[in-house]
Amino acid sequence: MTARTDDIVFRYDDPVLGEFALRPVDPVGDNELLYHWVTDPKASYWMMQDASRDDVLKESQSIAAHPTHQAFLGLRNGTPDFLVERYDPHGELGAHYAHQPGDVGMHFLTAPTTRPVHGFTRAVITTVMESLFADPSVRRVVVEPDVRNTAVHALNAAVGFEVVGEVVLPVKTALLSVCTRDQYLTKRGAA
What is the reported pTM? Predict the structure, then answer.
């Protein structure tokens, strides 16, 4: 399946895996695809295993209508392969950490697959970080994955995130981590 590319907002060329790109999620047009991704057992940390198609649509529409939360469909060589959310962490995490000007929150999800591609998830998080830091107002990226999601903790550390600590949120205990532009650029240069 290929996707339209007329509304691409960011592109990143991975030297091994090709072009990665982001476009805004179309809540209606992308609903079937997103429904399968977020309800797949692999996406358990998204906590939507029991969601209906209508639940997923409503969530996408809510994000699209929100002034400080955006969702992007990620494409690899023109094929939808991942989901990215950008949000203001002050709203979601404000009571749990010292918010600073230039903070942006991020979530990402890779599509379920039966044929994993070596280096794919690292290329996805690199695309996400490159897209966030392409905005000169962004000084720091904030993430709050579930404490049990050790795979994403390792990936976050690989691109420069430093752990702040555990925070108890309404739906999970999270490992709050932050990555400054300099931390990211240092890790990227070392790779």
Answer: 0.94
pLDDT in tens, 113-155: 999 999 999 999 999 999 999 999 999 999 999 999 999 999 9
| Cα distance between residue 191 and residue 172, in whole Å | 32
SS (H, E, C) the chain: CCCCCCCCCEEEEECCCEEEEEEECCCCCCHHHHHHHHHCHHHHHHCCCCCCHHHHHHHHHHHHHCCCEEEEEEEECCEEEEEEEEECHHHHHCCCCCCCCCEEEEEEEECCCCCCCCCHHHHHHHHHHHHHHCCCCCCEEEECCECCCHHHHHHHHHCCCEEEEEEECCCCEEEEEEEEHHHHHHHHHHC
- pLDDT category at 4 given cuts 50, 70, 90 is low
